[in-house]
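note to self: dont lose this again. the chain is below, predicted strucutre after it. 251 aa total, dont forget to put it in the shared folder this time
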Amino acid sequence: MRTSERSLIKRVQTELPRATPFDLAALGRLGVSSKLAAYYAGVGWLERLGQGIYAFPGDTLEPYRAVNLLQSRVPGLHLAGKSALALQGVRHNLGTREQLVLWGDVRFSLPQWFTSRFPARYVGARLFAWPDRSLPTQTLTNPPGAITGLRVAVPERAVLEMLYDVGTREGLEEARNIFDGLRNLRMGTLVKLLTCCTSVKAVRLFLTWARETKAVDVDAMLRRSALPVGSEMRWMSRLKDGTLMTLKRHG
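---
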């Protein structure tokens, strides 16, 4: 290895954080070309995880740092649903290998280098018909204690993402137990999100459980805005486990 190449890899080792995957763009900012990155991987200075994705050999990747990299590549990708609630203190019997729930704005398949390390699933559903460009951004946050730049759904958005998945990817009982732990939901944010929510099931299930738990004043919410609750008929569906879910119009 030439002296210039050795000094460059030392710079990479000094300036890029450990336990973090990085792409060719990050390496390029330090003067490492794609060809040179491949060379470094060939001689064992870097580990190639996937196409254009590298890490330091022997590093155990930190999941949220890996999510951070995906966020730079997938529009709207964020920690969502049950995972977002857990990171913000709302959880129920989470296991050490709990599946990461990620949502984004486009169709996307999580790369093998990611799923081989972290149990995860990605949802590209259009749960909200956004009225403007500000609300999507306003309902994502970087919680205290989280790594810089990690985008996480605020609780009001995360709970609707979780309810959308109830009966298919999320169990009814566990979702209800998590819902019971919700505190201090913001009425204004909820009304904005419920108003543009495209899932009648998620809206009605939220209203039903909110009435039962008194998480928010449902009647005050209904007086404040016309929510998309569908027709006068009860919403009925057979869930994946065989349970028949029946939801009234206003909870």
